[in-house]
Amino acid sequence: xxxxxxxxxxxxxxxxxxxxxxxxxxxxxxxxxxxxxxxxxxxxxxxxxxxxxxxxxxxxxxxxxxxxxxxxxxxxxxxxxxxxxxxxxxxxxxxxxxxxxxxxxxxxxxxxxxxxxxxxxxxxxxxxxxxxxxxxxxxxxxxxxxxxxxxxxxxxxxxxxxxxxxxxxxxxxxxxxxxxxxxxxxxxxxxxxxxxxxxxxxxxxxxxxxxxxxxxxxxxxxxxxxxxxxxxx
Length: 233
Ligand SMILES: [Zn+2]
Ligand SMILES: [Zn+2]
Prior knowledge:
Number of helices: 7
CATH topology: TIM Barrel
Distance between the termini: 4 Å
Radius of gyration: 17 Å
CATH architecture: Alpha-Beta Barrel
Strand content: 15-25%
Number of strands: 10
Bound molecules: zinc ion
């Protein structure tokens, strides 16, 4: 089995530990063909990267792309947040990014009713899986997201509905190696609805880049390895 790429990694630009370069070096060491730095987008009040800092990060990734050309493909990603019903902080210049990940997170600004719902449900309030799935998939479609991160983490989601949308829109569901948010049954259900998966390390330290162990085990248990796009058997 070979890991092709890890598109979900963080750095000290948000609340991770290493530099973008450290993540790239680790990915080279592992023999990956691509790696993305996909920092938390600005809508996250706790650790979103925005303004000058985001410009600096993007500049650093541009120079890493050049420096490592021929050795590894460095991708410029962003992990965006659902900020309202069908809304997200996927940036207007979405085309400047190689990878857009979208997920539910705690700590988005409470400027609308659905943002309050995210707050309440993520802290144990009433769960609305169908509505949550509708909201994130509408936001993903509107913003042209590539990947839904850790489905079911913080907010429960209706897996059949999410998987149907993901299949229709060509969006990948992440089996997150740091937060195993999808159960074996969830993965089986999503697969039965035609969804494809991507494994992400969600590394917050360079050492964890490409650490797919937990997610691989779960995918194996669900007999879903054939539906994971970033590994080769
Ligand atoms: Zn996340
Ligand atoms: Zn993440």
